Amino acid sequence: MCAMDYEIAQRHLRTNKLMGVDFLPVSKVETNVTGSSQQELLEQLQIEHNDSCPHCTQETGYTQTVFGAGNPCASLMFIGEAPGAEEDACGEPFVGAAGQKLNEIIQAIGLTREEVYIANVLKSRPPQNRTPLPTEIQACGPYLKKQIEIIQPDVIVTLGSPATKYILDTDQGITKIRGLWNSYNDIPVLPTYHPAYLLRNYTTEVRGQVWVDMQEVISKLP
Ligand code: URA
């Protein structure tokens, strides 16, 4: 259980006890068999990634790895492509212009950035911000899959082609499959446009499509 959830649960428990109730229903298993919390497991995975990722342990000119950010027990997970210049400089995903747009999308769903989890397929910035190569994704991508396994989100939103193709193991481009529900290991996955694409194509049509996608997401969240 996350520290914040734990505090809230304890507060509820104290109030309930006063009223004669001495248990709380638990909706999600948040510890594994060894009792490690999702936060601890993610921290361990981050260390393992930084020590052993076949791609990110190579010197490709990046400043630091960008592992992921947000709630380790999140119901909703967003997956992007790779860190850009701003993310490379500060170590957090989606903090540049695309990140501001993603924040607005998250707010439109009625959530905050702290309530969701945000990660990328590639954890280090590709040289000149180029699109990640398939070999790079194959090397680093398994760490993303382990993140998903730990977080166990109820819904995944893939942002743009590289994330969608990797998670859904498909060759179909984003324009073909955006807005169509699919699944990864029984987790519902909704591909939508990358916020950077949305910024470059800020038309009523594209904005409307993303908004329709987010309404789908809202309807699927518990
Ligand atoms: N674009 C991405 O795909 N990920 C980031 O973290 C930032 C921009």
How would you characterize this protein structure?
Residues 1-31 have low confidence and may be disordered. The protein has a domain at 67-220: Uracil-DNA Glycosylase, subunit E (3-Layer(aba) Sandwich). Strand 5 (182-184) and strand 6 (187-192) form a beta hairpin. The chain has helices spanning 3-18, 38-52, 85-90, 97-109, 134-151, 161-168, 174-177, 195-200, 204-220; strands at 69-70, 76-80, 117-120, 155-159, 182-184, 187-192. The protein is α/β, with parallel strands linked by helices and 222 residues long. It has nine helices and six strands, in the order H-H-E-E-H-H-E-H-E-H-H-E-E-H-H. Helix 2 (38-52) packs antiparallel against helix 5 (134-151). It is globular, with a radius of gyration of 18 Å. It has a six-stranded mixed beta sheet with strand order 1-3-2-4-6-5, sandwiched between helices. The structure holds uracil.
